[in-house]
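Deliverable D4.2, example record:
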Amino acid sequence: MSDRIVRPLTAIVTDFSQMSSPAAKKDAFAFIAPAEACTHCGYCLPVCPTYRADSNEVESPRGRVSILLALRDGHLGAKEAGAVLSHCLLCRACHAACPAGVKPGHLVSLSRKHHPLPANRLSRLFHAITDHAGRSRAAAWCLGLYRRSGLRRPLRALLRLFPALARLEGLVPDGPPAKVQTLPVPESGGWRIALIGSCMARLFYPATHPAAFNLLVRLGHRPVSLVQFGCCGAPHRERGDWPALQRQATLLMRQLEGNGPFDAIVADSDLCASTLKAYGHIFGKHNASAGPAERMAKQVYTLSQFLAEAENWSDLPKADPGLGRLAFHDHCQTRHGSGIINEPRSVLATLPVALGDIPDGAFCCGAGGEYLLRHPERSRGVRELKIAAIRASGADTVVGANPGCLLNIEAGLREEGVRVMPLAEVLWRAIR
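Output generated by the structure prediction step:
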């Protein structure tokens, strides 16, 4: 590891210098202990998106393990270690690759829980909108109006003078947002299902939620749309801001309690589903919310998971949605964290379409929650590898179930002539 990264403790101001005893320091670093099992074999290198993008050893899983051990042993300060570890996308691809069972992504996530990544102006603005149901609704309306107007071309020319704003505007999907009218809900029969609406889908892919709603209705269930909580807390979890995560989780759980009981909980975004499944771990054992959160987490499905397990999904008549050859893009945490890989593909396989696969399908797209806002250049470097893989797949339409991934990929494919579409919208086009 370079001398630029590992420096003597006396040269660094640490967050632990005021701890009263060695025992207190040991307890604070106990979560790093699994890193000692790392043999630095290198099996993690080929699957790590940041390492593959720039071949920097420090940006590899075993490099991050070394950073954590250097932090624990006093060779590195918390602020400097945090700055280096902030480049981990938390994709968890390294977990399956490690023969020693070390989970570098999990260790990085725990380190952020102890020392959250600082919010920048963009992330603060982002959360000021998405954490509040009313503001996200107003922002979605404004974005829809902007996309339907003729202002985009002249505004893009003006924004060339402001590269940061131009980069953000470039993430907004082209064309007017699709519209889907929801079907009437059956009065009885089927399951009563809480359908959780993603804030990102609400903003950028507003047809996703009503399409998912309609799919559940067509299966004979009684979905209830839940969108009044703002954000589920996923970006706060990735940044390590657990008080904010617990706040948003509490808001969502109150919505569930106030509208329940439910037979199942389905999320229209895979990231939301991954986050809801983790709710059982985000409250302390003695917190009154811990028990309800654990019970709620056991009811959570991704949309593809629910449809794949539905006995009558295959019985629904389906038509070609007119999107050419399809290829599914996996959301990293859903694939590597929840092990959901075959479900979306088996659901798509029931459609009368050509279905291909993206080479290196387990490889991250570079969005990483707030990562594309914190580290836009590095994010683009990772995304370029994904775009090359999509190009090699021959897909006409990339299908995904996480709006953050789709937003990032669609921006990268703008000149490629390849469509990007949420899974729920593709399936609804085929069903109706």
